[in-house]
Design brief:
- The chain is an alpha+beta fold.
- It has two domains: about 1-50 and about 145-310, Multidrug efflux transporter AcrB transmembrane domain (Multidrug efflux transporter AcrB transmembrane fold); about 55-130, Alpha-Beta Plaits, CATH 3.30.70.
- The chain has helices spanning about 1-15, 25-45, 50-55, 70-80, 105-120, 135-160, 165-190, 195-220, 235-245, 245-270, 275-305, 310-330, 340-345, and strands spanning about 50, 55-65, 85-90, 95-100, 125-130, 190-195.
- The strands form two sheets. It has a four-stranded antiparallel beta sheet with strand order 3-4-2-5.
- A hairpin with a 3-residue loop joins strand 3 and strand 4 (about 95-100).
- The two termini are about 40 Å apart.
């Protein structure tokens, strides 16, 4: 299997094997649009479950419990505040966390006593605290500011580095897609959004940009002086770049997702609700979606932008016209033209029909 995978990767890089990823960009755009639309719907209903750090309230932690029955905590709170709907979660195998809206001091003491009796623990095993919403709002505000600053700096740096604003625009759109889908998954699952979750959202931005920049760098290398030759179009050169970096994207994603998956499993099923689980889910979904967007969304978007340029549009028409003319001349001479002959005679480097190293872009002398 390893040998076959290595051969597959080598064929992708040399061009002997290729997938028309860029050419099918309308399907990728449609898929991305549907995912974002579904995420938007999920944000409306059922919506995000904000943690106590964002909504404020009272929190109780019961340690050294002999049972993980959450109904006992619900009933204990109902004895003191019948209208209250507490959020009860297991923390590890011996603790229960109970979150409510803001309670009075008397109610807090009564709930503490009720929890002690319900779980048969001592007074020292029940801890209570009040968390105001101001801290969570401050975290959200700073996270929003950080996101705006990050996007502005990203746009400037990528525009300068690639000497092309279209790549920066495509990368930013892909980032919004990644964030939207990740947030939508959180709304679908119903896990609480905590400060650790926000940190996870911000972390996946760096991963997604890194993967996208690697692909764009190969696109730039392949498309240097693309209008000075008539062998292939800008779209074909860009598609070749995506295929050449496909194996690298897969390897990087797998290597990154495996430890995050392990952390997610431990956080969700071993330790219960907590920081590990919150940040791991955001990272796992964000990295997975980011790997998709860097290959199937960012580069196709960049190509769609570039094909609107007069120079690129004229060059594409010229190359396609030359191919049509060459095939027509061959047919006029009585030559039976099949697909393979057309590719060979016209020098076309279309997906699935590349001609190995001879089809690779040539670098200009320095």
């Amino acid at each position: 299997m390893a040998v076959n995978f290595a051969q597959w990767g080598n064929d992708l890089y040399t061009g002997r094997r290729s997938y028309d990823i860029v050419g099918r960009r309308k399907w990728w755009f449609l898929a991305a649009g549907i995912l974002v639309l579904l995420a938007a719907i999920l944000l409306v209903k059922p919506g995000l479950q904000l943690g106590i750090e964002f909504r404020g309230g009272s929190e109780f932690t019961v340690s050294n419990v002999s049972t993980s029955d959450q109904q006992l905590a619900t009933d204990a709170v109902a004895e003191v505040a019948p209208d209250e709907v507490p959020r009860v979660t297991s923390v590890g195998s011996s603790s229960i966390r109970v979150q409510t809206s803001e309670l009075t001091n008397d109610q807090v003491e009564q709930v503490r006593t009720a929890l002690e009796d319900a779980y048969g623990v001592s007074e020292d095993d029940v801890a209570s605290s009040y968390i105001g919403p101001t801290w969570g709002q401050d975290v959200s505000k700073k996270a929003g500011t950080s996101l705006v600053v990050f996007l502005v700096l990203l746009a400037i740096v990528m525009t300068i580095y690639f000497r092309n604003w279209r790549m920066a625009a495509a990368a930013i759109i892909a980032l919004f897609h990644d964030i939207a889908v990740t947030v939508g998954v959180y709304a679908l699952i119903g896990w609480e959004v905590t400060p650790a979750t926000v940190i996870g959202f911000l972390t996946i931005l760096g991963y997604s940009v890194y993967d996208t920049v690697v692909v764009f760098d190969k696109v730039r290398e392949n498309t240097v002086a693309v209008t000075e030759q008539s062998r292939s179009t800008y779209e074909e050169r860009a598609n070749l770049a995506v295929n050449q970096t496909l194996v690298r994207s897969i390897n990087t994603s797998v290597v990154a997702l495996l430890p995050v998956a392990a952390i997610l499993f431990i956080g969700a099923f071993v330790l219960g609700a907590g920081t590990l689980r919150d940040i791991a889910l955001a990272l796992f979904v964000g990295m997975f979606v980011g790997a998709f967007s860097s290959v199937f969304l960012a580069t196709p978007l960049e190509v769609a932008f570039r094909l609107r340029e007069k120079g690129i549009k004229a060059h594409t028409a010229k190359v396609l016209a030359a191919r049509t003319s060459a095939v027509t001349e061959l047919a006029a001479d009585g030559t039976t033209v099949v697909a393979a002959d057309a590719v060979r005679m016209t020098g076309q480097t279309r997906p699935g029909s590349h001609q190995g190293t001879s089809a690779q872009p040539r670098r200009k002398g320095r």
